[in-house]
Amino acid sequence: MAAPYSGREGSFSVRVEEEGDALAVHAVGELDIASAPALEHSMLHALESGTPSIVLDLTGVTFIDPTGLRTLLWAAQHSGENRDSLRIRIGSAVRRMIEMTGVERSLPLIA
Question: What global pTM score does this model have?
Answer without folding.
Answer: 0.88
